[in-house]
Structures are given as C-alpha cells and as structure tokens.
Design goal:
The structure is a single chain. This protein has helices at about 20-30, 40-45, 45-55, 75-85, 100-115, 185-205, 210-230, 235-255, 260-275, 275-305, 315-335, 350-360, 370-385; strands at about 10-15, 35-40, 60-70, 90-95, 120-125, 135, 150-155, 160-165, 170-175. By secondary structure, it is α/β, with parallel strands linked by helices. It has a six-stranded parallel beta sheet with strand order 1-9-6-4-2-3, with helices on both faces. A hairpin with a 4-residue loop joins strand 7 (about 150-155) and strand 8 (about 160-165). Helix 4 (about 75-85) packs across helix 5 (about 100-115), helix 9 packs across helix 12 (about 350-360) and helix 10 (about 275-305) packs across helix 11 (about 315-335). The chain starts with 10 loop residues before the first strand and ends with a helix. The relative contact order is 0.12.
Length: about 375
C-alpha cells in the first residue's frame, strides 16, 4: 500500500511535574470515577500517592487496584475488571511500567467490548474504542503509555498473548521523570534496554518508514547518552528526562513500524518463566542482531552512528559489528544478567521456539527465521560468556 496510518495517544505531556495537569484532562473526558491500576511496590514506596494526592486536591474520586504483578495474567486482568465494575468506574488511570499499563488497557477494552481477554489476542480484534485511559509511566522503557499494544500471559497455556489494537490507545500519556528517581538501578537498566530494543527493532522492521526511522534513531542516541548515567545516579534529572523522551519515541516508533524476533523470543521467556520483559529483551538483543546482520548491516551501521561511534573509516560490516559490540558492553556495564543466570532450561528450547515463531512480532523481523534458527539463537544466548 502507498499510505501509512499513524497511531499515537490523543494527548501527551512529558517533563518534571506534569502530573499536576491530570485534573483538567479528567474534566475534558467528564470522568466521574477512576480505577487507578498499579502494583503494590509503587504503592508502598509512595509513587502512587504522588498521583492520588493530585486527584485528592482536585476532588476527583477513584478506586485503587494494586494487585498487578510482572507479566500480568488473564486471571489478574479479570480481577481488576471486577473491581472496575464493582466500584462503578467509568475511566482508568494506569500508574507504572508495562505491567500496570497493559492491565489498564485490557480492562479498558473489556469494559467497552465485553467477552474474555483471550478473545482479543492478535491484531485489531475489538470492535469499539476502550474507555478513556490516562497512562502514567514510571519506567523509561516499556513505551506502553504510547503504544497500541498490550501483553497478557495465558497462565494455562504458559503463552504471552500480544494484542495490537488501536482501540487501546491512551487518551493521555504522561512521562514525569520526578516519578522515576526512586526506581532501582536494576529496573532502570532493564527498562532502558527495553526501550533500546524497541527502537532498534522498529528501525530494521520490514514496515519501517521515515517517521519511525527518525524517532528510532533519536531514541537510540538518547539511550546511548543517558542510560548508564541514570543507572549510576537515579536522581540525575537530565538523564531521567532523556530516558523519558527515548522510551516515548521508541514506543511511537515500534507502535507504528512493528517489532521483531527479539520480542517474539522474549515473550516466551516471560510467559514460560516469568522473566521480566526488559531483562529478556536485553539478554537476547545482541544475539538476534547477530542473526539479522546479513539482512540489515547498513541499518546497523546507522545505529552505530546514532550511538556516536566514529564509523568514518569503517566498512558497513565493521560499523554494524561496532554497534553490536557497543550494546554488549553497555549491557555488561549496567549489569544485565546472562540467559544462563535465569530460569531458562535448554530442555524447553523447542517449545519456546515454536511459540516464538507464532508471535505477532516475528513477521516484521528483517530476516526470515526457521525453527532451527530460533533454537540456535536461544542456545547461543544461553552459552554466551
């Protein structure tokens, strides 16, 4: 086709203190009562209170659901939806990283479309736009506040379902770096590598186009500039703000261009072993890049330049490999574990690879992959030193 359709939130605010703008947007949507969806950790450390204090001062009623866990499941989505119904809510406020925002999207879709969340696995399965969602991001990685995708684990089949659906787009996306200063270094590292993976996969996806290319390259440059700084000093507001922009732009890029083999494989690690999504992506990223190299070396050379690597005396092959080497060293410096240090079992590789080939991320990968190819990438990652 000769045209592109762009997907993005209706409104976006990025910058320190922007949560103060929430009440006027609630007035715009005429919201009567929100279900605030988050996790217990963010509730306990006071991040959620920073938002609910804004709601309290503005006299905006809400109910709280704090039961979100990493890699949220079907039963957890059903539990949150039950609270939404019981409390008579008419819109949602998601606070957190990918998991709380994904649950918020799922409840939003169910509240308008009915049925079971399993009914919406795949591409554009809902008929109506979900109820309004205010998505408040607290990690600089997932991009969930900006994307038309959400992921829910089917705990019975041990499979991550990826829903890609414009009807789940948030009404308002907020990135306030002041909410991220207490995020621990290991989570900063994992979510930052998640953002980098989004940008790289969007840049080499089969459906990439100029809009997504520009966003992806700028996001890659910001991650290279600021991720390690944010890991080393969580109160470096410049680094935190850079990472807000990076993850938002990377989210826009992949929401419009698609993902690839890294995510297709990482989803299986999350569904099978509950491996945190950012960690799974970070572990697999360079191994998939090495596999894809024959199909996109010129684009990987562009990535090297975005990372401020001097490629002036390099061939495209050398520049592409320099980008991969840079990312490997970055992962080491911010203490990303190896696959062998996770719950992964080589005996599961066939099942994981079969599911990865069925993942909705796989068709956009720049190089076709067979079952044997996917198995080999898993095992290369497992045996990496």
């Amino acid at each position: 086709m000769n045209y592109k359709e762009l997907y993005q939130p209706a409104h976006t605010i990025i910058g320190k203190g922007c949560i103060q703008e929430i009440p006027k947007h609630i007035d715009t949507i005429a919201g009567k009562k929100a279900l605030v969806v988050t996790d217990e950790g963010l509730y306990k450390i006071g991040t959620v209170k920073k938002v609910t204090d804004v709601l309290d001062r503005a006299g905006k009623p809400y109910a709280l659901y704090t039961g979100v866990k990493p890699n949220p499941t079907v039963s957890l989505v059903n539990e949150a939806k039950a609270v939404y119904d019981r409390e008579g809510c008419d819109y949602l406020i998601g606070i957190g990283g990918g998991s709380p925002l994904d649950v918020s999207k799922a409840v939003s879709i169910l509240a308008k479309n009915g049925g079971k969340i399993e009914d919406y696995n795949g591409l554009d399965k809902s008929k109506k736009s979900g109820v309004p969602l205010i998505a408040i991001n607290t990690t600089a990685g997932t991009g969930s506040e900006v994307t038309r995708a959400y992921v829910v684990t089917d705990e019975v089949r041990k499979v991550k379902m990826l829903m890609v659906d414009a009807h789940c787009l948030s009404y308002l996306a907020l990135n306030d770096p002041a909410l991220m200063v207490d995020m621990p270094a290991h989570l900063t590292a994992a979510t930052g590598m998640d953002a980098l993976t989004h940008a790289i996969e969007a840049y080499v996806a089969k459906s990439h186009f100029p809009f997504t290319d520009g966003l992806a390259l700028e996001a890659i440059g910001l991650v290279g500039k600021s991720l390690q700084k944010a890991c080393e000093n969580g109160r470096d507001m410049d680094a935190r703000t850079d990472m807000c922009w990076a993850e938002y732009m990377a989210g826009l890029a992949f929401s419009n261009a698609g993902l690839g083999m890294v995510h297709a494989m990482a989803h299986q690690l999350g569904g099978f072993y509950n491996t945190p999504h950012g960690v799974a992506n970070a572990i697999l990223l360079t191994h998939v890049m090495k596999y894809n190299l024959p199909s996109c070396k010129d684009r990987y050379a562009d990535i090297a330049r975005a990372l401020k690597i001097d490629t002036s005396h390099m061939t495209p092959d050398q520049a592409a490999n320099a980008a991969i080497d840079y990312i490997e060293k970055l992962a080491e410096r911010i203490h990303i574990p190896k696959l062998s240090q996770t719950a992964f079992k080589p005996s599961d590789v066939l099942t994981l690879s079969l599911h990865a080939l069925e993942d909705t991320g796989m068709p956009e990968n720049p190089r076709e992959a067979t079952l044997v190819d996917v198995q080999k990438v898993f095992m290369d990652a497992y045996y990496a030193k």
